[in-house]
Amino acid sequence: MTDDPTPPRRPRPQTGPVQYKGADLEPARGPGLGCFRFQIVLLIALIVLTPLSVAWDWPPLVSAGLLFAVILLLLVAGQTIIFLLRLVAADRRSRRRPLGSATKTVGELEDEAPQAPREGDPPA
Fold first, then answer.
1. If pLDDT is split at 50, 70 and 90, which confidence band does 32 have?
2. CB 43 within 8 A of CB 77
3. Could you give the CA distance from residue 45 to residue 58 in angstroms, rounded to a whole number?
4. Contact 17/124 with Cβ under 8 angstroms?
5. Which of 19, 53, 73, 118 is the right S-S partner for 63, CB 3.0 to 4.6 Å?
6. What is the sign of the dihedral through the CA atoms of 44, 47, 49 and 52?
C-alpha cells in the first residue's frame, strides 16, 4: 500500500468520431487546403489594394467595395480554417498512437491499469 494521496484516475470514455451538423465529419466534404490557400492569397491582395485605392484617389465606392470584400473574405477564411482544424482533430482522434511510436501512449497505459476501489464507490 502506498501513501500516495492522489486517487487513481477513472478510465476515459471512448469518444467516437467528430460530429459536424449531426453526422460524422467526412474529410472529402467541405473546403480543402487548396481552397483555403486561394482565400488567403486573395485576402492578402485585397488588404494591400484597399489602402492603395484610397491613396491613388479611386472612386469612394470602389474603396468601400474593397473594404467590404476584405471583411467578407475574413469571415469566409475564418470559417474555412475552423473546418480544417476540425478535420485535423478528427484525424488525430482516429489514431490514438503517434505514427512513429512503437510504445503505448499514456492514455493506453491508464486504460490498462487495474482500478482500485475508491471511497464511496459501491462494492462490486
1. confident
2. yes
3. 17
4. no
5. 53
6. negative
The x, y and z cell numbers of residue 88, run together, are 485535423
What stretches of 28-102 show up as alpha helix (H) in DSSP? 33-55, 60-94
Residue 25 predicted with pLDDT over 70 = no
Residue that has been written with the C-alpha cell 475508491 in this structure: 118
Give yes or no for a contact between 17 and 24, defined as CB atoms under 8 angstroms apart. Answer: yes
Rounded to the nearest 5 percent, the helix, strand and coil shares of the chain are: 50, 5, 45
Contact (Cβ atoms closer than 8 angstroms) between residue 54 and residue 63:
yes
**Contact criterion met (CB below 8 Å) for 83 and 30:** yes
Q: pLDDT at position 21, please?
A: 72
**Phi then psi dihedrals of residue 61, to 5 deg:** -65, -35
Grid coordinates of 43: 485576402
Q: If pLDDT is split at 50, 70 and 90, which confidence band does 53 have? A: very high
pLDDT attached to residue 39: 92
User: CA 7, CA 67: separation in Å to the nearest integer?
Assistant: 57
Question: Can you tell me the mean pLDDT for 33-52?
Answer: 92
